Amino acid sequence: MTSGEFKKLRKFLKLSQKEMAEALGLKRRMIQYYEKGERDGESLDIPKAVELACFALAAGVRDYTFVTPKTPPKRTDASAL
User: Fold this and answer.
1) DSSP string spanning 25-80?
2) Are the C-beta atoms of 3 and 39 separated by less than 8 Å?
3) Which member of 22, 27, 31, 49 has the lowest number of beta carbons within 10 Å of its beta carbon?
4) CB neighbour class for 1 (10 Å; exposed up to 12, middle 13-18, buried from 19)
């Protein structure tokens, strides 16, 4: 996810930077860094966990409680990929 995509998503969700920060469990300043794509002059990548949380917000998920699956997930053979 690029900084521009991050900002577009926030605006699409009609959230302020403060509201986006609260929804993601971050400080507002981090939202500013992600939207700018840098922090203190250094390039800043958006972590995969934040990308996934953004995907969940876009899908309408506002809270999540982990439920243990009844069966373990099937392992995939890495060589088959």
Assistant:
1) T--HHHHHHHHHTEETTEE-PPPHHHHHHHHHHHTT---------SSPPPP--GGG
2) no
3) 49
4) middle
Q: What pTM did the predictor assign? A: 0.76
Task: Yes or no: say if 56 and 7 are a contact pair by the CB < 8 Å rule.
Answer: no
What pLDDT shows up at residue 79?
58
Please answer whether residues 1 and 51 qualify as being in contact, where contact means their C-beta atoms are separated by less than 8 angstroms.
yes
Read off the DSSP letter of residue 15: -
Measuring CA to CA, how many Å separate 78 from each of 61, 62, 75?
30, 33, 9
Share of the chain above pLDDT 90, in %: 73
CA distances from 81 to 52, 66, 73 (A): 22, 28, 17
